[in-house]
Design a protein that fits this description.
single chain, 343 residues, alpha/beta, TIM Barrel, 6-stranded parallel beta sheet, 14 helices, 41% helix
């Protein structure tokens, strides 16, 4: 992990007020998706599914419905959670399922046995049954953490292509796009064009997985930028390669904005940096990258996600105009202390 991560270890220090302030009050965001990390230990997990749904309900109370969308986190390698998906779907109305395939050693609070180990989306024991359940429950959006895993084997996006090919009616949002932090000297194959030489590392693994399964631009794989853009914004050449590759191999309609900004403060500096960023002309010519036009930036900053999450653009524009009022009121009236929703 990079050195700055050590200051973010105390994940329980964040409050709902921090979230609303950094995601809404201090930004131009119209709509956000609330997600969480994995795990069953309250001391080491950001939010549980009931807390995400309760946060959404609280925002609905102040801002009206539609400002905050929520995931449901599923540990698909636990039978009890697999069987709970229907109940969670009915109770929490998620817009998508969030999964982590690389978490080792977890224990379920209701399973008497230990964790059944890591899993992958394309394995027959856990992955395929989970995807079939997601399809049958009518929530065909799977948001899967890939990358930023210290190169853990099951953190690789190698299963994304096979899963997307086997389930063409599901959409796969690949959180972090398979990106891995640079090695200690600050270099990684993510800082160069995609090639056979670089295909086994970072986001290039996602490209290779899709390529081998015949999944091209505009299909059902959506690389997401959370933390990845934050990590690249100080390294413009690496950022240009990464964005150029994601647009080239997955399409300008499929790259999904994300900031993970609750970790890093207000999302607005990351939005501003993206708006100002350009892929140099010589890189476009040499590597076949498309220019990062204003139209493409608008798609990535929100239009693509709006289509994927079925967000009414007219309402989103209306939301933007009253952002500060409701968010400031919510922070002052309800969220001045520690996270108030509990379990």
């Amino acid at each position: 992990m990079p050195t700055w991560w050590t200051e973010l270890d105390d994940i329980t220090a964040f409050t709902a007020a921090d979230y609303v302030r950094n995601v809404f009050l201090e930004t131009e965001n119209s709509v956000a998706v609330l997600t969480s990390g994995p795990g069953h230990d309250p001391d080491n997990r950001n939010l549980f599914n009931d807390e995400m749904a309760a946060t959404k309900a609280l925002v609905d109370e102040y801002a009206g419905p539609g400002r905050l969308l929520n995931h449901v986190v599923v540990h698909a390698n636990f039978r009890d959670e697999y069987e709970a998906m229907e109940e969670w779907n009915d109770r929490y109305t998620p817009v998508g399922w969030k999964v982590y395939t690389h978490q080792e050693g977890l224990k379920s609070p209701t399973d008497s046995g230990p964790s059944m180990g890591s899993w992958m989306l394309d394995d027959q024991q856990f992955g395929q049954p989970f995807l079939e359940r997601a399809r049958s429950l009518g929530v065909p959006l799977v948001c899967v953490h890939k990358g930023i895993s210290q190169v853990a084997e099951n953190g690789s996006p190698r299963d994304i292509g096979p899963a997307a090919r086997a389930f063409p009616d599901l959409s796969f949002v690949v959180y972090h796009s398979g990106y891995e932090f640079p090695d200690p000297v600050g270099k990684s194959p993510d800082e160069a064009e995609y090639s056979d030489r670089s295909a086994s590392f970072g986001s290039n693994r996602l490209i290779r997985s899709a390529e081998e399964c015949g999944i091209g631009p505009g299909q059902n794989i959506y690389p997401e930028l959370g933390t990845t853009w934050f990590s690249l914004v100080r390294r413009p050449q690496a950022a240009a390669h990464f964005l150029g590759k994601m647009i080239k191999y997955f399409g300008e309609d499929n790259v999904i904005w994300g900031t993970d900004s609750i970790w890093y403060g207000s999302a607005q500096p990351l939005i501003d940096a993206f708006r100002a960023f350009q892929i140099p002309d010589d890189m476009c010519e040499k590597f076949g990258y498309a220019p990062l036009t204003t139209e493409v930036k608008q798609k990535i900053l929100g239009l693509n996600a709006a289509r994927l999450y079925k967000i009414d653009l007219g309402l989103a524009e209306q939301y933007r105009s009253d952002n500060a009022d409701w968010a400031d009121r919510l922070v002052r009236e309800r969220l001045s202390g520690p996270f108030p929703l509990g379990r």
